[in-house]
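for the writeup, i need someone to sanity check this before i put it in the appendix. the sequnce is what the collaborator sent (i think, or maybe the updated version? ugh). structure was predicted straight from it, no edits. if anything looks off just tell me and ill rerun, i have time this weekend
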Amino acid sequence: MAKKRKKPKPKPKRPPTPAKFPIGTLVRVTAGTSDPNFLDIPIGGWCGIIIEVEEGPGSASYLIEWDRRTLDAMHPVYRNRCERDGLELESMWLDENDIEADTGEAVPIEQPTQIVTRPLRMNDPEDRIRAILGVTSDDPLPEVNEENLRKYHEYLNEKLTFPFPARYEEETGPFQSRQHRLTVTSLHDPDDCDEEEGLLCEALEGDDELEIPLVQIEAASGPNRRLVEDYAYWFVNWPSEGREEAALVHAPGSEVVYDADREMEPSNAWPLFTSFLKTGLMGGFYGTVLGAALASLEGAFVGARTGAILLGVGGGYLGTRTGEMIGVMNRVRQGHWFGGILGVALGALSGGMVGVMLMASLKALLGGLLGGVLGWFLPVKERSFWAINGMIAGAMLGVLAQAWLHAADEAYSGMVTGGIAGAIAGPVLFLTMIVIMVALDAHRS
């Protein structure tokens, strides 16, 4: 979504005066006026209609919607800059002193005589990509095609340090994934790369040799991480026209093209239902333990409140930073807000339980140790994953045991109330995460 132009700053120490031009007035920009955002772009002679007025100290400001003749005469560099910075092309806020009534006389539309191109900023990912692909700050980022992929391959092959550790996320179901740890050994030959998958890399997972699109991996740390992230940012957000159209075929709300000769498979909502069921069970377990502790253990409320505040603040900070990074990768301006809200919620939930565990430290410690040992010796591949989850579940059961031994009647009442509340809150939080993901996609710039 394009940003509206900023209104001119009001001039101080001048009393407000009534607007000279009402809404609906045809106006043109006076000769010698420059765009407030780009001083090397003259806009004298631009014509349009006033669609909004704001009175201010000294003089009024006007939002002007340009006419077709003005839009057709706009310089290509100006168009590129508006696209680059997310600014509206069709309208602009101007001060009253910069416009005059349009009498219908065909005055010439001024054109720039000396374009001043802004130097590329290496702290901006889009400018770093422009430098790689050989364009200026006044040019839009080039789309992903074979020629640009070769340029990027040549650059990365020179700058990346091989081998390097990386992670690869494999989707195993709706909102479910499995993480693989890889060692990337080299980039694949550019002749074998295409616009669909982009650059390919060769990697090792243990003794297994893999060939994975570079856009799907995340370098562990160091300069390689930023290089790979910049490439993924470009590849995902500037697809070629053909790849973009192919993606739209499967986009929500778009017209889906069906193959008449292919038998359609019925949709399966079971994985989503099981995800809601799992979050309900986990929320119920969390609520049962927390409710029992708050109802029966002395000091549990203070511990839960303190832990929720501390970890909520920390989770909000980490969520904001993570959301900001995801926002940059996906061109989402509000990413830090979504990440911060989610971070506060998850941090507060975790902190509340941690605070309660500290009030029942001995039982929680014994339960955590027992759960961790049991999880480690389960006959599964991901033993560390189950050991960590076993420690958490065991510590929570230890808190529940402490609450029950201390005051069984109060603990039982808290278990029922907390279990019901948690079973409802779990799916609600899961649904909120889905809404945030949809909102992130809808708010892409």
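The chain is about 50% helix and 15% strand. The CA atoms of residues 31 and 44 lie 4 Å apart.
thx in advance!!
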